[in-house]
Design goal:
Blueprint (H helix, E strand, L loop, with lengths): L19 E5 L2 E5 L9 H6 L6 H17 L4 H13 L10 E3 L2 E6 L8 E6 L6 E5 H4 L7 E7 L5 E7 L6 E7 L5 E15 L5 E7 L5 E8 L9 E4 L6 E6 L5 E7 L4 E7 L8 E2 L9 E6 L2 E6 L8 E6 L9 E4 L5 E8 L3 E8 L2 E8 L5 E4 L7 E6 L7 E7 L6 E6 L5 E6 L11 E9 L5 E9 L10 E4 L17 H4 L4 E5 L9 H5 L7 H16 L8 E6 L1 H12 L6 E5 L5 H6 L6 H8 L6 H10 L13 E6 L8 H13 L6 E6 L12 H16 L6
Parallel strand pairs: 32-33, 32-34, 34-35, 35-36, 36-37
Antiparallel strand pairs: 1-2, 3-4, 4-5, 5-6, 7-8, 8-9, 9-10, 10-11, 11-12, 12-13, 14-15, 15-16, 16-17, 18-19, 19-20, 20-21, 22-23, 23-24, 24-25, 26-27, 27-28, 28-29, 30-31, 31-33
Helix pairs in contact: 3-13, 7-8
Length: about 700
């Protein structure tokens, strides 16, 4: 057993083995822990009392073992929570954003777990709190706000909440003038509501029994939701669906997509009963995203081989591909991430050489300029605006050493106005820290960007402990942003590193393509290459590296644990997607059909089956030594079901040859995102950090 853990640690739970043989494509596998999957998961996510008592007893035994294994760091955990809470401005608030006669914002009261939503008259005046999530959450263990949308006439509010962690949101309505709740309630939605232009009602997406957003409805204020007319139904279970609005407010957009194909339908916001108009029919591999201004569609797309995307225009009344005209041509290596249309300007967020910048184009004459920063590693966010006829946008900036800053920017005068800098009440001196961006050589000759932050006085002689974070799926890029929580590690001598591995879009769309489906192994070898480079450059040593990832990043943790366990001193896997083959073979689960473009379809394709089987962490656990592992799960998680980490931990314990502990902690009252409150979340982060500090001999108070 790792010397970090006491010798008299109780024996961990041993899950009974009930082998079941599973066959596909002429191959047979044995799953000895498949019994942990409940057949009534749809009902259980809504009512956890329906969980099989045998499974509940096993998960609770795992939690008791986790408590025993981490008992000695409870004082450290409490200190970490206090530290992290001390860096949070408890009575913080956003800078209100103007919309017509009001400016809308979000604020927290000191000690409050949840936000309160407020508005003030645009020219100043009394603050009106129109939704206090703390009052709504009273007496509830889990509470999460979904969408919060005021009507165009500023008289009504449609908002949604999830009180189980299962991500089935209930939409509620409120009269903003009186504060009274309206009787309209709509259950089992995805959480978002999009108002029509006249404020008579809103569009919303309903989830089916398998947690898939399959139908769009329109709700008229005061009507019985049971009679809401169906606007659109998606019959292909392989697609996600949502409903939104163009920046102008003139069109409602039904957005349908998987991980490589898009389709959008437009409805005039002033005529919600109109038949939806198709923009461009779905074609495999064609992605597009629509905004609109003054009757012209501005479409961000990868059409015509524009791998890193371009922006085209088309008339809103003739939106088909035959009318698409290039406005911002494709440039290889310039990845356009998102776009926003104002009355007189087009704005987009792009990434070049791994770093973001905002570009502004005046529509009248095509004049362009950009907003960028000089730091070696930084994060930039385009916040946009409620309004359309404006020249002001809002954006945010931070770096690993620079707290988040919020700016208003006039796209015509180019005046940049700093509205707010994130306060760190306990103090923060950026000069004490170093932010770096280095590149690790990958086995095939590519270079993997790594963002680093550490204290200036940290010895870079291979002795420093290091937390290496990675994700690498779905094209998501992990920003090099400021984190007050990470300071608790860095101030104790850790180097904190983010490996920008393939599967994300950090180096363009090709970086994503090279880390999915048959190329998925690149994601894992990139992460291992990052560890190798950090050791060779003396930032740390293998036994001093703690790997950390969650969800699809948890898959990464499981894969590198199997491939290179000797290169990590510990592994932390949060809601880890580790039972990949079984999950992607199970087309009844919420995310499986829409995930096939990302991972492949092992039901239909023998080749896809072989690829997934070659790396699926649960299927590749072997009789060898593994480092200490901490896995975290959520009982009502619809994305990575609780049985994935539970089965993985059980198989690891049964097969591995070392005495290092494998710890599983399941939140019995939460889902994919863990605890819901802003301070309650710190408990999980502190558990992760105290585990890492314990492994690295840094647990002293």
């Amino acid at each position: 057993m790792s010397s970090a853990f006491r010798a008299d640690l109780p024996a961990p739970p041993r899950a009974p083995q009930r082998p079941v043989e599973l066959s596909a494509h002429g191959r047979t596998r044995t799953d000895e822990y498949g019994w942990m999957r409940v057949d009534n998961w749809q009902e259980m996510f809504k009512d956890t009392s329906l969980l099989d008592p045998v499974i509940r007893a096993h998960l609770e035994a795992e939690n008791r073992y986790a408590d025993a294994a981490l008992e000695d760091v409870e004082p450290l955990k409490a200190k970490l929570i206090a530290e992290m809470r001390g860096r949070i401005k408890e009575d913080d608030s956003s800078v209100p954003a103007p919309d017509g006669p009001y400016s809308y914002g979000v604020a927290y009261e000191a000690g409050a777990e949840y936000p309160r939503f407020f508005r003030v008259p645009r020219e100043g005046g009394r603050e009106d709190v129109y939704l206090d999530a703390n009052k709504q959450a009273e007496g509830i263990d889990y509470f999460s706000i979904g969408g919060v949308e005021h009507s165009p006439d500023h008289k009504r509010l449609a908002w949604s909440f999830d009180d189980k962690g299962s991500e089935f949101y209930e939409i509620a309505l409120r009269d903003l003038e009186t504060g009274a709740d309206l009787p309209d309630r709509i259950a089992d939605t995805s959480g978002d509501a999009t108002w029509d232009a006249r404020s008579h009602g809103f569009f919303y997406t309903k989830l089916d029994a398998n947690h898939r957003p399959s139908r769009v409805f329109y709700h008229t204020l005061g009507a019985d939701p049971a009679s809401d007319p169906l606007v659109y139904e998606e019959t292909d279970t392989g697609f996600f669906m949502g409903v939104g609005q163009t920046q102008s407010g003139d069109y409602v957009v039904i957005d349908i997509h998987d991980h490589e194909t898009s389709e959008a339908w437009l409805i005039p916001a002033a005529n919600p009963a109109a038949e939806p108009r198709l923009v461009a029919k779905r074609e495999k591999g064609l992605e597009y995203d629509v905004d609109e201004g003054d009757g012209t569609l501005f479409i961000l797309t990868n059409a015509d081989g524009a791998r890193d995307f371009k922006i085209v225009t088309a008339p809103a009344d003739q939106p088909g591909r035959e009318a698409w005209t290039d406005l911002v041509p494709y440039e290889d290596g310039r990845l356009i991430l998102s776009h926003l249309v104002l009355k007189r300007h087009l704005i987009w967020l792009e990434r070049r050489d791994g770093l973001p910048r905002i570009v502004v184009r005046r529509l009248a004459d095509g004049a362009e300029h950009s907003i960028a920063f000089e730091e070696e590693a930084y994060s930039l966010g385009l916040g946009g605006t409620y309004e359309y006829d404006t020249t002001t946008i809002r954006f945010s900036y931070s770096s690993p050493t620079t707290p988040n800053q919020t700016f208003d920017y006039d796209v015509e005068t180019r005046e940049r106005r700093l509205l707010k800098t994130q306060e760190v009440p306990s103090g923060h001196d950026p000069s004490l820290y170093v932010a770096r961006r280095i590149f690790a050589p990958a086995p095939d000759g590519e270079t993997v960007p790594i963002s680093l932050v550490y204290r200036r006085d940290t010895a870079l002689d291979g002795s420093a402990p290091l937390m290496l974070y990675g994700y690498g799926s779905y094209g998501h890029s992990i920003p090099a942003s400021f984190s007050t929580n990470v300071l608790s590690l860095v101030d104790r001598g850790f180097v904190y590193a983010i490996a920008h591995i393939r599967g994300g879009k950090d180096k363009g769309f090709r970086w994503y393509e090279a880390g999915r489906r048959e190329h998925k192994r690149n994601t894992f070898t990139d992460f291992i290459a990052a560890a190798d480079h950090l050791v060779s450059e003396r930032f740390s040593s293998y036994e001093r590296i703690v790997a950390h990832g969650g969800s699809a990043g948890g898959l990464l943790m499981g894969a590198v644990a199997n491939m290179a366990p000797e290169k990590f001193g510990g592994i932390i896997a949060v809601v880890p997607f580790v039972d990949v083959l079984n999950t992607i073979l199970d087309d009844t689960l919420p995310l499986t059909p829409p995930e096939w473009p990302e991972w492949g379809n092992p039901i239909l394709s023998e080749a896809d089956y072989e690829v997934i089987a070659s790396y699926s962490p649960y299927d590749n656990v072997e009789a060898k030594a593994y480092p200490p592992i901490l896995a975290l799960a959520g009982l009502t998680d619809p994305r990575v079901t609780y049985w994935e980490p539970a089965k993985w931990v059980a198989r690891l314990r049964a097969k591995k040859t070392d005495s290092n502990p494998v710890i599983l902690r399941t939140n019995m009252g939460a889902g994919h995102g863990g605890a819901s409150g802003r301070f309650a979340k710190l408990d999980e982060i502190a558990m992760i950090y105290s585990f890492a500090l314990k492994l690295m001999g840094k647990a002293a108070l």
